[in-house]
Amino acid sequence: MKGLGGVYLMALLLAGLSTGVSQAKPQPVPLDQEEYLDADDWFQAGLSLNSAGKYQEAAEAFARSISIDERNPLAWLNLGTTQALSGDFGEAIAALRKAVRLNPELSVGYANLGEVYFRIERFEDAVEAYTTLLALSPDDHNAHYKRGLAYLLLKDPGKAQAEYLVLKDLDPELARKLLQAISLGVVKN
Q1: Residue 12 confidence (pLDDT)
Q2: Is residue 23 part of a domain?
């Protein structure tokens, strides 16, 4: 699969996490011939396994890809995403942080990192990840919403209100949900 060029990135929202996936449908890799597989073959196998909901196997395939080419931010992104989907948040954070270190403009990496931090209630870290994401993508509705919720959970309703004001124009439905959470002083997510 060395002939495939370009970037393998298309946002896929799955359980609140995005993953970098190939725009073309990945072809199954003959795993019985694994000694002949290169980094891209393992990456494609990981995408196929991830699409099938086999997150642990997908993580193993992405790890194999990384063992051959450790400078691929999309492999690190996908590894971290599959680890998060498997509930291995500590390892997910490490992989996602590596992805954004390799490519500081990888918006989906910050989105996933923010989501993982939010899920494990590290709200200050979530705010930092969403802030970086919003510097790259100022109109990211979900980032404004989740950052507003994180501010609320950090007991900073003023900053949560500021996110509401931004969301009013971007996404009235998310703005309504955030305002409801602010009004109640609680977060249901």
Answers
A1: 28
A2: no
